[in-house]
């Protein structure tokens, strides 16, 4: 069923869902859920839009039944951790390739798709400031590198001063090629949230660090078929084992301390984040989150 023009802003999230149906059904499910929620706000009254959104709801219901045993679908906390971890992994992969000066279409796709997945996190509530910054930077980088390569220029690696760039919908066109209507660029990506020249200064991104063990996993989410692109073989980053905070080892639960329901929920989140990080063999992030959980449970802070 063709996407009605009024719902064009959700086309990239739906495309990302299709790409992940087999690779990661949880990502596909939440991409469609975000698309449906956004679509309802855009236009749920026009008959063609209503028909499209009802069909999308049916797809979501079917997926929910098929994935009913998956905690990432049945529990928001786990689903949030799954999508955030996936988006961050893709962002770090793209950022690492960018800083190394390895510019290719897969890199552009990785930056752009990570920004879409940060969008998807809104189904769980407000985005953190860090994720908002990552989303803006990823969208801008995708546009900047794409336009440089299109114009035969060599992009500058890593964070640089952000100038006005417009992403020309390369992955949105039906044939996967660039749009032929440059005058419509500003409308083609309404999720830019304003002109890129209004994006935050680059100083916000100059200190983005690649955590130990954050190399792209064997099944890098960025691996999409591109006949023009060479196969990407991520280079593992040497792991350094984080030091465990010795004060946490001797701490026991203080008898007169009362933990609130919110404390238990937060501790559970930390543990879920750690579990997700271990799926990607990201030991550093796992230890960091487990330490946060342990500190909260032993000190209430």
Describe this structure in words.
This protein is mainly alpha-helical and 301 residues long. Among the domains are: 5-74, Serine Threonine Protein Phosphatase 5, Tetratricopeptide repeat, CATH 1.25.40.270; 77-151, Vacuolar protein sorting-associated protein vta1 (Serine Threonine Protein Phosphatase 5, Tetratricopeptide repeat); 261-299, Single alpha-helices involved in coiled-coils or other helix-helix interfaces. It contains eleven helices and no strands. It has helices at 11-20, 25-42, 47-66, 71-74, 76-99, 105-120, 129-150, 185-188, 246-250, 261-279, 283-299. Helix 1 (11-20) packs antiparallel against helix 2, helix 5 runs antiparallel to helix 6 and helix 10 (261-279) runs antiparallel to helix 11 (283-299). The protein is globular and about 60 Å long. The chain starts with 10 loop residues before the first helix and ends with a helix. Residues 165-242 have low confidence and may be disordered. One of its GO terms (cellular component) is endosome membrane. Residues 10-151 form the Vta1/callose synthase N-terminal domain. It comes from Carassius auratus (Goldfish). Its main location: cytoplasm. InterPro entries: Vta1-like, Vta1/CALS_N, Vta1/CALS_N_sf, Vta1_C.
